[in-house]
Design goal:
The complex is a heterodimer of chains A (274) and B (635). With 274 residues, chain A is α/β, with parallel strands linked by helices. Chain A is built from 11 helices and 15 strands. Classes of the chains: A alpha/beta (274), B alpha+beta (635). The interface between A and B is medium-sized, with 18 and 25 residues.
C-alpha cells in the first residue's frame, strides 16, 4: 500500500502525533486535583460537548443557516437536561478529537465516535449507542468503480478523512488501491467529484444523508460485513464518576426510548445499538 | 319503396361525413398536438444545450480569470511552490477541474497541482484555435485517456476507448513577462457529464460537447467514441455560421432525434443535445391511443345506433307508405267497382268526381258533369221546400238519406235512393260531400204492381172488395161534403151457375169478363164498379141529385146484363138482379150497413122474379120498390 499525503494533510498528521505524545502522559492533570468533571459541570453550570460539524445526521452545521442538527445534537441536549445544565457545543473533528478532550477543551465528545483500539489507548468511551459498517461513495459517472470489489484495484484512488476510524482501517485493508488522506472540510467529496479520487469511505449516517443531497454521487455498499465499528461518546481517561454518569445516560436513553426516537428522526434506527 | 334507396344513400353519406368529420377534427387536433410537442421538445433540447454550454463557458471563464489573476506575477521558477499551493486552493469547489499546471514553451509541465505531472511533456501545437506566435485566447486540446497528464495520453485515432478516466486538455495564456508560460488545464469531463445526465438520462437522449472541428470531447453516452469522429463533421460545418440551431437528425442516437446545438460565445466548443423523438412523442402517443381508443368505439357505437334508428325510421316509413297505398287501392277499387253511383263535390257543391256507376245510371259522361252543380240532374218532381229541408238536415247532421226523382240525360225520370255525407277536415270544416245512390225505378214499379194486385180482381181487373170498401168510404165522405146522393148498387147475375155447369168455368169466366166490361161501359168515370166475388158486382154511383137520377143508369145496367154474348163458342144469356141503397139516409149509416141494405134489396129483387131492380127503403123493408122488367128479358 502506498500512502499519498498531500502536504497540508501531512502537516496535520504530524501535529496530531505530537499532541498525542504530550497528552498521553498527563491524563490526571486534566482532572484538576481529583475533582470530577461531573462536579465541575454542575458548578460551571455548563457542559461542553465536542462535535464535528461536518458530520451528516450526527452533528451537522448547515453552512447556509448555521443551524446544528443530528442525533447527537439532540442527545447532547438530552444530556444537558438530565444534568440540569445548558449545553455548549465546541467544534472539533476526528483529527483533533483526542487533543480537544485531553486538553480539556470539552467535557465529552458526542459525535458518534468510533470505538477503535487506537482511540481506546488514549481515550475512554461510554457503552456504544450506534454501530456502523463502512460504505463507499463514488460519482455516478465513474466507470472504474461498479462494485465493492472494484475499490481495491490498481489505479483506484480511495479518499478518507484524516483522523476518522476509516483512515487506519483502510490503510490496513487496501493492498492495491492508492489511499488519499484529506483533512480539509468536504475534501473527500471534492476529490471524488473532480475525478482525482474514485471513492471516499464513510459510514452509514454520513453516506445516507450525503447521498440524499448529492445528485452526482452513488453509494457502493460492501457485499458482506466489512468492518463494523461501534459508536459511543468519548471522554478523557480516568474520572470514573464522569464516565459512570455518561454511561448511565446512555443506559437511560436506551431504556426510555430517547435514543430510538432521536435515531428515527434522522433515519438511523437501523444502526442503533440496543 | 322508390324513396327508400336514395334515402339510405343519403343517410350513409351524411353518417360517413359525420364520422369522417369527427375523425378529421380529432386527427388534426392530434397532429397539431404532435407539432406542439415536437416544438416543445425542441425547445427543451435547445434550453439544455444552452444551459450546458453556459455552465461550461462560465466554468472555463472563472478558471481563466482566477488563474490569470493568481498567476499574474508568476513566471519565476522560485515561486513554483507558491503557485502549486494556489492551484490547490483553486481546485477546491471547482469540480470541473482535474488539475492545473504551468507549461513552458517546450510544452513541458513545470509546476502542477498534481506533483506527478511535473516534467511531463504535453504537445499543444494542434490545439484549437491554431495560433502561430503568442497565445492570446484559450485553446482546446483533445480528450486524454487517464486520470491526469501524469498517467494519461492524448486520445489519437486508434487509441483504446475503454479507459476508466478521461480528461480534456486546454491551455490558457498568462500575463507573464516572458510570455513563455501558459496554464495547462485538465478539465474533468465527469462533472459535466454528471450534470448533463441528471437532466438528460440515456433513455431520453444524450448530450455531447464538440470542439468546433467536430472532435467529440465528452458525451453522456459512455459508449460514444471520443475524439475525431466522422459523424459530427456535417454538424460541425454549421458551427462557423450558426451560433445555435436545431434540426431533426438520427446520427448520434442511431434513431430520429431532436437535435439542438449551441456554440460557446467565448471558447471553441459547442454543446449538442439530442432528444429521442419517440420519447418526446411518448406522451403524444399515449394521448393518441387514449383519444382514438375512446373515440373509435364511440363512433362505431353511434354509427350502429344511427343505422339502427334509421332502419327503424325506414321501416316505419315503408309501413306508412304501404298502408297508404292499400288505403288508396281499396278506395279506388270500391269507387270504381261499386254498383251504386257515387258523386263527390266540393263544399260549394261543384262536382269533382263521379264513378262508373254514376255514368251508367245517369247517362252523363264523367267529363260532362265535372265542375257542374248536381242540380242538372233535377227532375223537377221535388219542389223547392224539399231541397231546403234536405240541405237543412245535411248541414245540421252531416248526412241526408231519402228517395228522390232525378232525370237522366236522355230525359227519362228515375227514382233513386240517395245518401249524402258531408266530409269534414280535422277542424270540422266541410271539405266535400259524397253522394251515393241507387236506381230504384224498377223496384218502385214492382211495388205498385203488388199494390194493384192487392186491390183489383185479377179476372176482371175491377176493384176488389178491399178497394171497394175504400172507395165506398171516400164516396160516402164525398156525398156528404157535396150534399149529393150516393147509390150503392148490388148486382147479382141470374142463371150464371147454369153456364158454369153446362159449359165449364172457363166459359163462366169469359161471361164474367164480358159482363164486367159491358157494365163498366154503362157507368161514368167517376163511378166505381167492383167485383164482390163470384157473380156479384157492386157499383157506386156518385153525385146523384135525386134517387130518380140513378134510375136510367140502373135500367141500362139491367139491359146490358141481359144481352146475349159469346162464351167459348156458345151463345149464352143471363140477367141481373139489382138491389140499391142510397146514402145519406135518415140516421147514421156505415159502409157495411149500406152494402147490407143493397144486398137485402138484391135478394128481394131475386125473390120478386129476377131481372129487376129493388130499391131498399128503411121505412118499410118489405115495401121496396120492385121495378119490373119485361118478361122477355127474364128467360
Amino acid at each position: 500500500m502506498r500512502t499519498l499525503a498531500i502536504p497540508w494533510a501531512l502537516a496535520s498528521l504530524l501535529a496530531a502525533s505530537l499532541s498525542l505524545a504530550q497528552t498521553a502522559a498527563a491524563p490526571a492533570a486534566a482532572l484538576d486535583g481529583g475533582v470530577s468533571r461531573l462536579s465541575r459541570v454542575q458548578s460551571a453550570h455548563s457542559v461542553r460537548v465536542c462535535i464535528w460539524p461536518d458530520y451528516y445526521s450526527i452533528t451537522y452545521r448547515n453552512p447556509k443557516t448555521q443551524q446544528l442538527s443530528g442525533i447527537d445534537i439532540d442527545l447532547a441536549h438530552e444530556l444537558g437536561k438530565d444534568l440540569g445544565v445548558p449545553v455548549t457545543f465546541v467544534d472539533s473533528s476526528f483529527a483533533r478529537l483526542a487533543d480537544d478532550l485531553l486538553q480539556d477543551r470539552c467535557d465529552v465528545a458526542m459525535f458518534a465516535v468510533g470505538i477503535t483500539p487506537e482511540r481506546q489507548q488514549r481515550l475512554r468511551f461510554t457503552q456504544p449507542h450506534l454501530a456502523s459498517d463502512i460504505f463507499a461513495v463514488t460519482s455516478k459517472t465513474n466507470r472504474r468503480i461498479r462494485s465493492w470489489a472494484d475499490i481495491d484495484q490498481p489505479g483506484s484512488v480511495v479518499a478518507v478523512a484524516q483522523g476518522t476510524l476509516h483512515e487506519p482501517v483502510m490503510k490496513a485493508k487496501l493492498s492495491n488501491a492508492q489511499l488519499l488522506v484529506l483533512n480539509t472540510p468536504f475534501a473527500r467529496e471534492q476529490e471524488v467529484q473532480a475525478g482525482r479520487a474514485d471513492v471516499f469511505m464513510t459510514d452509514y449516517p454520513y453516506s445516507q444523508r450525503f447521498l440524499a443531497n448529492a445528485d452526482w454521487a452513488r453509494l457502493v455498499a460492501p457485499d458482506r460485513r466489512y468492518h463494523v465499528t461501534p459508536y459511543g461518546y468519548a471522554l478523557a481517561p480516568g474520572d470514573d464518576a464522569w464516565h459512570a454518569r455518561l454511561d448511565s445516560f446512555v443506559t437511560d436513553i436506551k431504556r426510555d426510548g430517547r435514543l430510538l426516537a432521536a435515531a428515527q428522526r434522522y433515519k438511523l434506527d437501523p444502526i442503533v445499538t440496543r | 319503396m322508390l324513396q327508400r334507396k336514395p334515402s339510405w344513400r343519403n343517410f350513409l353519406v351524411v353518417l360517413a361525413a359525420c364520422v369522417i368529420g369527427v375523425l378529421g377534427i380529432a386527427l388534426s387536433a392530434l397532429w397539431a398536438l404532435r407539432s406542439e410537442m415536437l416544438a416543445g421538445s425542441f425547445q427543451v433540447s435547445a434550453l439544455m444545450a444552452r444551459s450546458f454550454e453556459h455552465h461550461l463557458t462560465q466554468s472555463l471563464n472563472a478558471t481563466t480569470q482566477a488563474a490569470t489573476q493568481v498567476l499574474a506575477g508568476a513566471g519565476k521558477a522560485t515561486d513554483r511552490r507558491e503557485v502549486e499551493a494556489d492551484f490547490k486552493r483553486m481546485l477546491r469547489g471547482a469540480p470541473h477541474l482535474r488539475s492545473l499546471s504551468l507549461i513552458n514553451a517546450d510544452d513541458r509541465i513545470v509546476a502542477s497541482s498534481n506533483p506527478a505531472n511535473v516534467g511531463r511533456q504535453v504537445p499543444t501545437g494542434d490545439y484549437l484555435p491554431v495560433i502561430q506566435g503568442r497565445q492570446t485566447v484559450l485553446r482546446l486540446g483533445e480528450p486524454w485517456v487517464g486520470r491526469d497528464f501524469a498517467d494519461g495520453q492524448a486520445l489519437r485515432p486508434g487509441t483504446a476507448q475503454s479507459a476508466a478516466s478521461t480528461l480534456i486538455a486546454a491551455t490558457v495564456p498568462l500575463q507573464d513577462a516572458s510570455g513563455q508560460l501558459r496554464l495547462l488545464v485538465a478539465l474533468n469531463p465527469d462533472h459535466l457529464v454528471n450534470l448533463m445526465s441528471q437532466q438528460l438520462d440515456w433513455q431520453t437522449g444524450l448530450a455531447e460537447v464538440l470542439r468546433l472541428d467536430g472532435t467529440r470531447l465528452l458525451s453522456t453516452d459512455p459508449d460514444h467514441r471520443l475524439g475525431g469522429t466522422s459523424d459530427n463533421q456535417a454538424l460541425a460545418r454549421q458551427f462557423s455560421e450558426l451560433e445555435f440551431g436545431q434540426l431533426e437528425s438520427d446520427g448520434a442516437l442511431g434513431q430520429p432525434a431532436l437535435t439542438a446545438f449551441r456554440v460557446s460565445p467565448l471558447y471553441p466548443f459547442a454543446v449538442v443535445t439530442h432528444l429521442r423523438r419517440d420519447v418526446a412523442l411518448q406522451r403524444w402517443m399515449a394521448v393518441v391511443t387514449t383519444v382514438l381508443g375512446v373515440l373509435m368505439p364511440v363512433l362505431v357505437a353511434l354509427s350502429v345506433l344511427a343505422v339502427g334508428f334509421h332502419r327503424r325510421q325506414m321501416a316505419l316509413e315503408a309501413q306508412r307508405l304501404e298502408s297508404e297505398r292499400l288505403q288508396r287501392i281499396n278506395a279506388a277499387c270500391v269507387f270504381t267497382n261499386i254498383r251504386e253511383g257515387i258523386l263527390i263535390t266540393q263544399a260549394d257543391a261543384t262536382i269533382t268526381d263521379v264513378n262508373d256507376a254514376f255514368v251508367r245510371i245517369t247517362g252523363y259522361s264523367r267529363d260532362e258533369v265535372l265542375g257542374q252543380n248536381p242540380r242538372l240532374l233535377s227532375s223537377g218532381r221535388q219542389d223547392k221546400a224539399f231541397y231546403e229541408a234536405m240541405w237543412r238536415e245535411l248541414l245540421g247532421t252531416g248526412h241526408w238519406r231519402g228517395e228522390i226523382w232525378n232525370r237522366r240525360k236522355d230525359g227519362e225520370v228515375f227514382a233513386e235512393m240517395l245518401t249524402i255525407s258531408a266530409v269534414p277536415d280535422s277542424r270540422g270544416q266541410v271539405q266535400q260531400y259524397v253522394a251515393i245512390f241507387n236506381n230504384i225505378t224498377d223496384m218502385k214499379a214492382y211495388q205498385s204492381e203488388l199494390e194493384h194486385i192487392a186491390r183489383f180482381d185479377p179476372l176482371t181487373d175491377l176493384p176488389n172488395r178491399l178497394l171497394l170498401d175504400d172507395r165506398l168510404r171516400q164516396a160516402m165522405n164525398q156525398a156528404q161534403r157535396r150534399r149529393q146522393l150516393l147509390a150503392v148498387v148490388f148486382i147479382d147475375l141470374d142463371g150464371f151457375k147454369a153456364i158454369n155447369d153446362n159449359f165449364g168455368h172457363e166459359a163462366g169466366d169469359q161471361v164474367l169478363i164480358t159482363l164486367s166490361s159491358r157494365l163498366r161501359a154503362v157507368l161514368r168515370d167517376s163511378d166505381t164498379l167492383a167485383r164482390q166475388g163470384g157473380d156479384e158486382f157492386v157499383a157506386l154511383l156518385a153525385d146523384l141529385p135525386t134517387q130518380g137520377d140513378a134510375m136510367p143508369t140502373l135500367h141500362r145496367l139491367l139491359e146490358v146484363a141481359a144481352q146475349p154474348m159469346d162464351a167459348l163458342g156458345h151463345s149464352v144469356q143471363v140477367s141481373a138482379s139489382i138491389g140499391v141503397s142510397f146514402y145519406p139516409q135518415a140516421g147514421k149509416r156505415t159502409a157495411d150497413e149500406l152494402l147490407h141494405q143493397a144486398d137485402l134489396a138484391m135478394y128481394q129483387a131475386k125473390a120478386a122474379g129476377k131481372n129487376r131492380i129493388q130499391l131498399w127503403s128503411d121505412a118499410t123493408p118489405q115495401a121496396v120498390t120492385t121495378v119490373a122488367v119485361s118478361p122477355a128479358l127474364v128467360a
